[in-house]
Amino acid sequence: MISNKAKYAFRALLAVAAAPEGESLTSAEIARRYNIPHKFLEQILLDLKKAGILDSRRGKSGGYVMLRPADTISFGEVLRIFEGPLAPLPCLSRQSYRRCEDCVSEATCEIRREFGRAYDASRQVLDSRTIGDALADSPYGGNAGQERRLVG
Amino acid sequence: MISNKAKYAFRALLAVAAAPEGESLTSAEIARRYNIPHKFLEQILLDLKKAGILDSRRGKSGGYVMLRPADTISFGEVLRIFEGPLAPLPCLSRQSYRRCEDCVSEATCEIRREFGRAYDASRQVLDSRTIGDALADSPYGGNAGQERRLVG
DNA sequence: CTTTATCTCTACCTGTTAAATAGGGATATG
DNA sequence: CATATCCCTATTTAACAGGTAGAGATAAAG
Q1: A102 near B10, Cβ under 8 Å?
Q2: Which of B2, B110, B119 sits opposite A88 (nearest CB)?
Q3: Domain for residue B57, yes or no?
Q4: Residue B151: its pLDDT value, please?
């Protein structure tokens, strides 16, 4: 299971990305809309800002906007911000490789091989699908991060 | 990352499954071979027994043997014993479904949809690949759970 | 029938993390 | 200058990971 923190981050990102071009969204509004504890959400939005994904405006009529286009932000990237490495085994992580204490030979390790396959399969999805894709595929057809399509 | 507990369980299972037909393997031997804390491993082996995967013999010259053939035991099944549901979101778990508090509409939830894809991809691997498969594909060509192949 | 090697069971311990909660400080707008 | 917002840090509570510890049950060997 992914953490609530990560899930709230996706909610927030999708909401900000789906907002009309140029309009900002406040943490309070997002929290209300999705029933997320407000102060907790603030921390999360701050993390997204520090990661260079969101930008913010302070003061009255402040709020959050996308800093990068939604279709350049993959689910994998966001997940890694909040969950750390996605690899199921330390020896499978490119970013933060660590040897397994109980491993006799990495090259022949069956566990590593099988989980490597599972990891590849899941990464294929998470690192290719973006926030923009998710909105575009949405029933309501959000269109953040790309040109507007004519509907009808 | 999967827990050490689960990883140790796979080590143990693969070792027992790879043992010559009819021979049992002691927890001490497995612990020594893979540098796993012995008492911790004992708990794990007990869990595998309670799950109906391993059988055990007590007393001198005791040890563990497979209760079911290795090629009927998927990585997913074992993982679920030690990690609980594999679904990345509670609303994606068939076995222990739970609604997300912050979800407005499950049918249109972009998070659910995207993680559903990732989950499907990873489950495709974990629920189809078995301990027996993993040994068969091994460089050294273990052959537990199926007829012996001639190596020439 | 005693010793010894094994599995079985239960309790406990320590550090880390999840999931908030709390309380203010900084800043922009009206 | 009042208010609404974002910004930052500390604290709390519960659960969980990853063991450690000690004793009991059982079976084989001598």
Answers
A1: no
A2: B2
A3: yes
A4: 43
A42, A71 Cβ separation under 8 angstroms = no
Contact of B101 with chain A, judged by CB distance below 8 Å, is answered with yes
Q: Is residue A151 part of a domain?
A: no
Percentage of chain B exceeding pLDDT 90: 88
CB contact, 8 Å: B118 with chain A? yes
B10 to chain A: closest CA residue: A111
Residue B65 and residue B95 in one domain: no
Which member of A85, A89, A107 has the closest CB to residue B2?
Answer: A89
CATH code of the domain covering residue A49: 1.10.10.10
**What is the number of structural domains in chain B?**
2
What is the per-residue pLDDT across A111-145, written as a single tens digit (0 to 9) for each?
999 999 999 999 999 999 999 999 998 766 555 54
- 8 Å CB contact of A104 and B33: yes
| SS3 state at B27 | helix
Do A14 and A53 lie in one domain? The reply is yes
Q: Are residues B28 and B63 in the same domain?
A: yes
pLDDT at position B111 is 98
In this structure, are A18 and A53 located in the same domain?
yes
CB neighbourhood size of A39 (10 A): 9
Nearest nucleotide (CA of B41 to C1')? D19
Q: Which residue minimizes Cα–C1' distance to D19?
A: B40
Residue A150 inside a domain? The answer is no
**Which value does ipTM take for this structure?**
0.92
Indicate the residue type of A144: A
As a whole number of angstroms, the distance between CA A10 and CA A129 comes to 13
What does the DSSP 8-state code read for residue A138?
A: S
Find chain A residues with C-beta within 8 A of B1's C-beta: 85, 87-90
Band of residue B142 on the pLDDT scale cut at 50, 70, 90: low
> Which nucleotides of strand C lie within 7 A of protein CB?
4-11, 18-23, 26-30
Domain membership of residue A117 as a residue range? 85-126
